[in-house]
Amino acid sequence: AAYAQEADMSLREYEDFVYAAAYADQPDPVRCWAAVHDRQQRLVEWLAGKSQVTVRGPYVDLSLSIAGRSFVNSDGRRNMPSGEIFTGPVENSEEGRIKFTYPALRGGREVDDVEFVFARGKVVQARAGKNEAYLLSQLDSDEGARYLGEFAIGTNDQIQQFTKNILFDEKIGGTLHVAVGAGYPETGSRNHSSVHWDFICDMRHDSEIRVDGELFYQNGKFRDDILNL
């Protein structure tokens, strides 16, 4: 009931939302997740060996390196619901800015209207319309907290609304998220921190991701020919 209240839904609406997000409302959920795995694996394999990512849109103008890093296919085996591909970008590579379109929650605090400016991988400017002092305190927690440990794209089109529950929200189809702080070693990330805090940006309008100059993702959708490899 508390999760439903946070999501601004009735309990029945939230129940339907949770089942849909996990494909538990489908006749064969396992087959659905197998299809998610196959679809995302084509993306991960296409990204293998690539180097430079540029992200452009109304809220973002950012470049970063994925050279030598691996993307992970998050397909329902580790958490549920799932639906994302993620990596740990090269720690000193981020340049540009990004403004996040949803609130970020941590430690019972809600931080809204967050914007980061990066230089040589580090968050050199951070602003928030709500709880900015708390945001800055977390970024100053330790040496790694101002560097990205994760760059990810949400792929679960069954999730289309923000619910204040990061397990669901980071998977919203048509969004990307980055996490400041600790990275996942399996991606090649070398960033260490006591913090791992996700921030989400909507990419469904007038937005694109290019990889080594080649269009990969536009307006919340991957290129059809990559998905059909």
Can you give a write-up of this model?
With 229 residues, the protein is an alpha+beta fold. Helix content is 22%, strand content 32%. It has six helices and 15 strands. It has an eight-stranded antiparallel beta sheet with strand order 9-8-5-2-1-13-14-15. It has a five-stranded antiparallel beta sheet with strand order 3-4-10-11-12, covered by helices on one side. The chain has a two-stranded antiparallel sheet with strand order 6-7. β8 and β9 form a beta hairpin. The longest helix is centred in the N-terminal third of the chain and has 19 residues, at 29-47. It is globular, with a radius of gyration of 17 Å. The termini are far apart. The model has no long low-confidence stretch (mean pLDDT 96).
What is the strand and helix layout of this fold?
Blueprint: H1 2-6, H2 11-21, H3 29-47, E1 52-57, E2 60-65, E3 72-74, E4 84-87, E5 95-99, E6 104-106, E7 109-111, E8 115-119, E9 122-127, H4 132-139, E10 148-154, H5 166-169, E11 175-181, E12 196-202, E13 208-211, E14 214-218, E15 221-222, H6 224-227
Antiparallel strand pairs: 1-2, 1-13, 2-5, 3-4, 4-10, 5-8, 6-7, 8-9, 10-11, 11-12, 13-14, 14-15
Name its key features.
229 residues, 8-stranded antiparallel β-sheet, 5-stranded antiparallel β-sheet, 6 helices, 22% helix
